[in-house]
């Protein structure tokens, strides 16, 4: 099975591309969803997070308060590394399970969608990588609207990731997301053909 890594900076449109791939029948394993599973209510992961960061990161219903945790870790690189040390091993285990199941099921290709693919040097485990790239101004505007972040908080999240230029250098193919959804779909088609050899007409969501 050919494994394609999909990544992109925060608010770059990576999830939109993943939805296009899934709608075309490409299996997509989402690391963000696995990370939620790793710290689900009642899990060992959540207990470890609370032990490190305190009860203030727990919502009244007992689930993880992601906003409260994000406010801590995006302001403190050491805290962010400690959180990653808790969550990432479990995400890796869950991803291996999902991908092994696809491989055993005969899937010819699968996509692993990972926000921090290059930051965690995961490209070594991929046959190829796709990077969704958006202008910084677009990312900041999307975070303000989608996540209701002020400019300082949004820029802190961008600063927590590798510079886009470094991601471009390391990616097998880059999908520019600076236009319309039909343009994005067309660019995905070109990038997908370059990394898999398959010509798929992706449809915008």
Report on the structure:
The protein has 205 residues and is an alpha/beta fold. It has two domains: 1-27 and 108-205, P-loop containing nucleotide triphosphate hydrolases (Rossmann fold, 3-Layer(aba) Sandwich); 33-106, no CATH class. The protein has nine helices and five strands; from the N terminus they run βαβααααββαααβα. The protein has helices at residues 14-23, 31-38, 44-53, 66-73, 77-104, 136-147, 151-159, 164-170, 181-196; strands at residues 2-8, 28-30, 109-113, 128-133, 173-176. A five-stranded parallel β-sheet has the order 2-3-1-4-5, sandwiched between helices. The longest helix is centred in the middle third of the chain and has 28 residues, at 77-104. The model has no long low-confidence stretch (mean pLDDT 94).
List keywords for this structure.
2 domains; 9 helices; 5-stranded parallel beta sheet; 205 residues; alpha/beta; Rossmann fold
């Amino acid at each position: 099975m050919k494994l394609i890594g999909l990544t992109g900076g925060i608010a770059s449109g990576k999830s939109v591309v993943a939805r296009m791939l899934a709608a075309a029948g490409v299996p997509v394993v989402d690391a963000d969803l696995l990370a939620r599973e790793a710290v689900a209510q009642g899990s060992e992961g959540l207990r470890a997070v609370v032990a490190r960061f305190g009860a203030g990161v727990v919502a009244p219903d007992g689930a993880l308060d992601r906003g409260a945790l994000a406010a801590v870790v995006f302001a403190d690189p050491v805290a962010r590394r400690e959180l990653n040390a808790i969550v990432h091993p479990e995400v890796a285990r869950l991803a291996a399970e999902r991908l092994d199941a696809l491989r055993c099921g005969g899937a010819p290709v699968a996509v692993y969608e990972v926000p921090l693919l290059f930051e965690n040097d995961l490209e070594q485990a991929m046959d190829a990588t796709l990077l969704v790239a958006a202008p910084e101004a677009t990312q900041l505007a999307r975070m303000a609207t989608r996540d209701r972040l002020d400019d300082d908080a949004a820029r802190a999240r961008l600063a927590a990731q590798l510079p886009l230029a470094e991601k471009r250098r390391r990616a097998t193919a880059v999908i520019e997301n600076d236009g319309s959804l039909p343009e994005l779909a067309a660019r995905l088609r070109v990038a997908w053909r370059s990394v898999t050899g398959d010509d798929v007409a992706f449809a915008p969501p």
